[in-house]
Amino acid sequence: MTWGIDYARVDGNKHPIDFKAAYAAGCRFAILRGAWGTVVDTIVRRDAQRLRDAGIPVGAYLFLRCPTKKQPVADPETQARTLIASVGAWEPGDLPPTLDVEFPGVLGRKETTLSARQAIEWCERAYDTLRQVYPTVMIYTSARVWREDLVDLPSYMGAGPLWLKTPYYWKAGRPYDTSRRTMSPDLPEPWVNGMNEQGAWFQQIQGDAIGVPGFSSTTDINLFIPMQFGEKSRRVRFVQRCVKTKVIDGDFGPKTEAALRSFQMENRLPATGVVDVATFAALCS
Description:
Elements: E1 2-7, H1 19-24, E2 27-36, E3 39-40, H2 43-53, E4 58-63, H3 76-87, E5 98-100, H4 116-131, E6 138-141, H5 143-149, E7 162-165, E8 202-209, E9 219-224, H6 234-243, H7 254-266, H8 277-283
Helix pairs in contact: 3-4
């Protein structure tokens, strides 16, 4: 299992962060907050290249804001374009951009002026804007959000990769722990079907952890779930589409493995036949 981090400017990590120390400790990816609505998070421009130089693939996410009775917000297209401007020139090897679908606050989505269907459509508008620029857009959300806030309504955003927030084992402020993983996670409705075994590529397992080498304050801890021969799931179909197998059946068999090895060689990656972080990033490019 491969672990990595996500963080934002508000986490308060002192600059400069020692990314080489984080890499030496085992950190193999980082996802940065690129924008909070239309507010650019400056850490993408500050840290992205330094992460790459340390050997850590980097991604960025948009925290999409929804209108409330007390505070109107910019339309989702404008918010998405803010992330695009924040990210700038994305490079080969980077992770795909992520749309954060959640509703903070005691009442969740009910604090907004949107119905469940309107909230999904709001998110889809941002997703469509990002897709005009990026071939793949990942979604960060949880089964709880989709069940309680979005009443398990369908969405075509489920065709893309999922970064799944799982229930945390530890409270905020505890030392980082990469050993915990939800083996059979509860998945949001759009990523569920009859063949599904693992719908997520990433699992966020700990929030506001401390002690990650090189960081002076908190980060969130995530796991990347690799894919290899024998898996049968919806996300295998995503890989099969990317490597252009003749059959898209969700079964990671010999032909899928061979096609993946060819894809890895074409992209100058180790031809392991296993989807690791670097291969995932290439598949999404």
